[in-house]
Amino acid sequence: QVQLVESGGGLVQPGGSLRLSCAASGLMFSIARMGWYRRVPGKERELVAAITNGGTTNYADSVRGRFTISRDNAKNTVYLQMNILKPEDTAVYYCNAIYQASLYWGQGTQVTVSS
Asked: For the chain, first and last CA: distance in Å?
């Protein structure tokens, strides 16, 4: 059974940083495509960043240059380093895995950017 467990969310002031982690189990992590999505109440869930098993990354325009996605295959973990956070980054952030043609989601972690 595939499980994704996010951690690292919280409250941060504008301009601050947070690092989200997603620990994966139940899959061959090294071949999974991993991603981070976020959802604001009343809006569709949107892609923030993704990383392929080969390490190719892509980002939403709104976070490019501020966020960095990375993965550690030895630890079965994907990270999202978020810098220069803005109030509009406030959302629930979800870890996502595409593995063997199936889609998996974590439970989400709240990120709130506010002074």
From this structure: 40
56-88 pLDDT per residue, tens: 999 999 999 999 999 999 999 999 999 999 999
Contact predicate 49/67, CB 8 Å: yes
What is the sign of the dihedral through the CA atoms of 40, 79, 85 and 13? positive
CA angle 62, 64, 66 (to 5 degrees): 100
CB 69 within 8 A of CB 51: yes
List, for residues 34-54, the tens digit of each pLDDT value.
Answer: 999 999 989 999 999 999 999
Inter-residue contact 90 to 113 (CB < 8 Å): yes
